[in-house]
Amino acid sequence: MRPFRYERPATAARAVAAAGGEAHFLAGGTTMVDLMKLDVMRPERLLDITQLEDGRYDFIDWDGKSLRIGALTAMATLADDDEVRRRVPMLSDALWLAASPQIRKAARIGGNVLQRTRCAYFRDTSYAQCNKREPGSGCAALDGGVTRGHAVLGTSSACIATYPGDFAQSLIALDAVVEILGKDGPRAVRFAELHRQPHSRPDIETTLEEGDLIVAFSIPDADFPRSRYLKVRDRESYAYALASTAGALRMDGDVVADIRIALGGVATVPWRAREAEEMLKGSSISEDGLERAAEAAFAGASTTEDNAYKVDLGKRTMVRTFLELARMEG
Ligand SMILES: Cc1cc2nc3c(=O)[nH]c(=O)nc-3n(C[C@H](O)[C@H](O)[C@H](O)COP(=O)(O)OP(=O)(O)OC[C@H]3O[C@@H](n4cnc5c(N)ncnc54)[C@H](O)[C@@H]3O)c2cc1C
Ligand code: SF4
């Protein structure tokens, strides 16, 4: 690992002022230190934000039906929170099914949503071609690489790397808002606008500006007891999603009053399936209807020989999620 300077800013404002260039925030370090060891990330200064003294950044606050969560809340703390599990199980499911107990204890939810792709060619610097790591160098995955884990939605001719996280799917489904402290002060952006599809610049992964610190996530309408996160993977623990669905449902009698669908493991960014939602709103839940909506959700898929199976797997995962939700009370 290359040498770096470790700093511990006392306040969020000082952390933001110090960040930028080769000075990066450090939360749990489970992405950052991992990628530093691989020489993929090369910060010169790490700004530890876990001990800020100017307020609490690890909180879970309900106000009526709205939920606000501090960005430095540990994954395990949120996963285990009784009220969150009862009122919006998809949030805790997504965290419970992610990583390992040790990682969930160290990692924070702000760092979690900013984790980087697991594309093997991005993580291994012996491959010269990676537009995400070295803009303009090409893409080893598309140039004859193994692409079984790669994305089928939101891809470009420059990059097909999958967004690997689980929790972000629940946030995008719930219309979460990201609260940011930047060099020009505080602002808020829709979670759906945080991640950028690769287009011609896969190295620019988010809409954050230099020095932006995520301080919290707020969800104005978080009461979704009939919600879940279903994750399909190669083995039952400690594995990333091959396909997943964050689903939430509100029924008015037999009719769908509100439905939220987000897909993971299949796209380059957290992926909201809005067209499928519109098809299902106002009707009753049926297997046929769900299959048609899943077809629409994957209509724009672009596949390789290795990852074509994800289209069928993704559709089935979505259908199963909602058949199970339809059977739940609530
Ligand atoms: C072996 C392994 C298995 C894993 N499996 C899964 C899995 O199945 N599902 C899953 O979802 N994840 C998985 N992960 C990823 C893991 O969940 C993330 O590494 C973790 O959540 C990142 O959080 P962190 O606090 O450690 O972030 P850090 O590593 O500290 O930071 C990550 C990035 O975010 C930036 N950052 C951190 N906090 C902020 C903030 N508040 N504002 C602005 N920028 C910030 C940092 O500068 C850095 O660029 C796995 C990781 C490992 C190592
Ligand atoms: S898919 Fe993206 S991350 Fe992977 S090698 Fe290609 S450019 Fe790099």
TrEMBL record:
<dbReference type="GO" id="GO:0071949">
    <property type="term" value="F:FAD binding"/>
</dbReference>
<dbReference type="InterPro" id="IPR016169">
    <property type="entry name" value="FAD-bd_PCMH_sub2"/>
</dbReference>
<dbReference type="InterPro" id="IPR002346">
    <property type="entry name" value="Mopterin_DH_FAD-bd"/>
</dbReference>
<dbReference type="InterPro" id="IPR051312">
    <property type="entry name" value="Diverse_Substr_Oxidored"/>
</dbReference>
<protein>
    <submittedName>
        <fullName>Xanthine dehydrogenase family protein subunit M</fullName>
    </submittedName>
</protein>
<dbReference type="Pfam" id="PF00941">
    <property type="entry name" value="FAD_binding_5"/>
</dbReference>
<dbReference type="InterPro" id="IPR016166">
    <property type="entry name" value="FAD-bd_PCMH"/>
</dbReference>
<feature type="domain" description="FAD-binding PCMH-type">
    <location>
        <begin position="1"/>
        <end position="224"/>
    </location>
</feature>
<dbReference type="GO" id="GO:0016491">
    <property type="term" value="F:oxidoreductase activity"/>
</dbReference>
<keyword id="KW-0285">Flavoprotein</keyword>
<dbReference type="InterPro" id="IPR036683">
    <property type="entry name" value="CO_DH_flav_C_dom_sf"/>
</dbReference>
<dbReference type="InterPro" id="IPR016167">
    <property type="entry name" value="FAD-bd_PCMH_sub1"/>
</dbReference>
<dbReference type="InterPro" id="IPR036318">
    <property type="entry name" value="FAD-bd_PCMH-like_sf"/>
</dbReference>
<keyword id="KW-0274">FAD</keyword>
<dbReference type="InterPro" id="IPR005107">
    <property type="entry name" value="CO_DH_flav_C"/>
</dbReference>
<dbReference type="Pfam" id="PF03450">
    <property type="entry name" value="CO_deh_flav_C"/>
</dbReference>
